[in-house]
Amino acid sequence: MSTPTPSLPTDPSTIPSLPPETQQHILDLLFEPSPALHKLSLPLPAPPKTYSALISTIRSHLLTLLTSPSTTDAETLDAILSAHPRLGEKKVGVVGSISRAEQAGLNARDGDADGDAEEEGRRLEELNRRYEEVFPGLRYVVFVKGRGREVIMGDMEMRIHRGERQVERREAVEAMCEIALDRAEKLGGVME
């Protein structure tokens, strides 16, 4: 049974008039399902003219959490950032199908022997584990589009070795917003 192809309302200015569950689903499609993000972002302060504007507003909210001295704000941000699936893990549902498509180049390598793909899968699993040891409560978030598995794993290694939680949070916020912009464009939303 195939998963239905998701879409967004073409005109984002209509989002505030939609039922709350639909508004949450739109955020889920763009950012991954996160009750903490729903609470932070909804209701929208004003009807967004474009998806770029919507994502920019949410980015501002996330950066406010990032710079806040509040432990509660840090926990909220971590909950939002950890909503992203681990790289290489099986994703389910409509939103999972989007993540699967984004990571397709990372998970399938043409011409590779099965043993090589399995070994790289184990390496990615190990990197996920190490990352989450260094950054408890976070998931590695990166905009994968156009980047190969070795580049992504090298970036992951660098970020693990750097070990700076605040820098990591900022990079994850920026990656989430890049991913959301890419998804909005692919799902037919008005961007500019």
Summarize the helices and strands and which ones pair or pack:
Blueprint: H1 20-31, H2 35-41, H3 51-67, H4 71-81, H5 93-102, H6 104-107, H7 114-134, H8 149-162, H9 165-186
Helix pairs in contact: 3-9, 7-8
Shape: globular
Order of helices and strands: HHHHHHHHH
Annotation, overall tally of beta strands:
0
Summarize the main sheet: none
Protein architecture, described:
With 192 residues, the protein is mainly α. The protein is 61% helix and 0% strand. The protein is built from nine helices and no strands. The chain has helices at residues 20-31, 35-41, 51-67, 71-81, 93-102, 104-107, 114-134, 149-162, 165-186. Helix 3 runs antiparallel to helix 9 and helix 7 runs parallel beside helix 8 (149-162). The longest helix has 22 residues, at 165-186. The protein is globular. The model is unreliable at 107-111 (pLDDT under 50).
Summarize the structure.
The protein is an all-alpha fold and 192 residues long. It has helices at 20-31, 35-41, 51-67, 71-81, 93-102, 104-107, 114-134, 149-162, 165-186.
